[in-house]
Amino acid sequence: MFVMAEPEDQTEKNQKSPDGPPTCSSLTTKELQQNLKAVKKNNQLVKLVFEIPSTRIIEEVLSKYVVYEVVVMRSGSFDSRRVSVERRYSDFLRLHRDLREEFQEELEDVVLPRKLLSGNFCPEAIGGRRLALQDYLAALYAARCVRRSPHFHRFLTQPEQRRAHGLLRAGRFLLAVQLLQDVLEIEEKLLPWQNPTLTVPTLSALAVCYRDLKEPERAFAAAQRALPPTRRYGLDRYRASLLQLLVDSGYELGRPVAQLQEELTLLRERGEVTSLKELVVHEFT
């Protein structure tokens, strides 16, 4: 039943409480300026910085190539966790082609450094390419369309997601957790601009790993973090599977799960509930 709230007494609302914050009329110009500065600081979005501090040459039986270490950091605040991924030039080229196909006009002035026809492995060429690719990432990130594009987060996380899920399917849960934690860290840095459900698959995979590692507390925590966006954005297939894991782990940990069980029952009435592990192992194949 919907109950309409009674309108507030505006006279009482506008009166200054002796214990409340001062009204604008009681503040000096200097105090107003300080308050405005504090509000602007709190509302300012944390930006990301991309650095390519190092490279290495990989030699295989039939190929030789350079990989670039890409570090993702928050600017304007101390970033306690340094997370990096390694990418080849071909990965940058694929990203560039995907983005130009979708945002040709917006990225007209963003140029990917060209591949050299010879001398690719001399230190001077590698050093120049490293700095040029770093500038390229900065130019991409400056474009709002890129910050919000799924192509951008896939470039930074998809190879690690695939390796982590391959390890998970092979039962190598500890190694999978290490990769998934790095992926999650990058995804959380990207979240202000990306789809709010971005972290759900990663948190779900972590919950499965922790469950199989006999760490129910961590499994419960990961699933609990993943659940709210599935509710808000209608990801019912993840929502039901997460609820099932939360109920099972909650019973094991002695947590109150009555509300979770009730929510799960309602979802079950709409259709069959797949186990979270079965759902996760089919991701990133």
Q: Overview of this structure, please?
A:
The protein has 285 residues and is mainly α. It is 56% helix and 10% strand. The chain has helices at residues 10-14, 29-43, 89-102, 123-141, 144-147, 150-169, 173-190, 200-212, 216-232, 236-253, 258-268, 276-281; strands spanning 48-59, 64-74, 83-88. A three-stranded antiparallel beta sheet has the order 1-2-3. A hairpin with a 4-residue loop joins strand 1 and strand 2 (64-74). Helix 6 packs antiparallel against helix 7 (173-190), helix 8 packs antiparallel against helix 9 and helix 9 (216-232) runs antiparallel to helix 10 (236-253).
* Secondary-structure-derived class: mainly alpha
Spans of at least 5 consecutive residues whose pLDDT stays below 50 are 1-26, 39-43
Mean pLDDT: 86
Strand tally: 3
- Fraction of residues in helices? 55-70%
Note the run of SSEs as H and E. Answer: HHEEEHHHHHHHHHH
Brief account:
The chain is built from 12 helices and 3 strands. With 285 residues, the protein is mainly alpha-helical. A 3-stranded antiparallel β-sheet has the order 1-2-3.
